[in-house]
Amino acid sequence: MAIQEQLEPNHPDAAITLNILAVLYYDQGQFTEALPLHMRALAIREQTLGHDHLLVAYSLNNLAILYREQGKYAEAEPLYQRALLIWEQTRGPEHPEVAYPLTNLAVLYHYHGKYAEAEPLFQRALHLREGALGPEHPLVVYPLNGLAELYREQGKYAEAEPLFQRALHNLEQALDPEHPLTRKTVKGYASLLNAMRRTNEAERLANRFSSSS
Question: Which of 21, 27, 63, 163 is the right S-S partner for 38, CB 3.0 to 4.6 Å?
Answer without folding.
Answer: 63
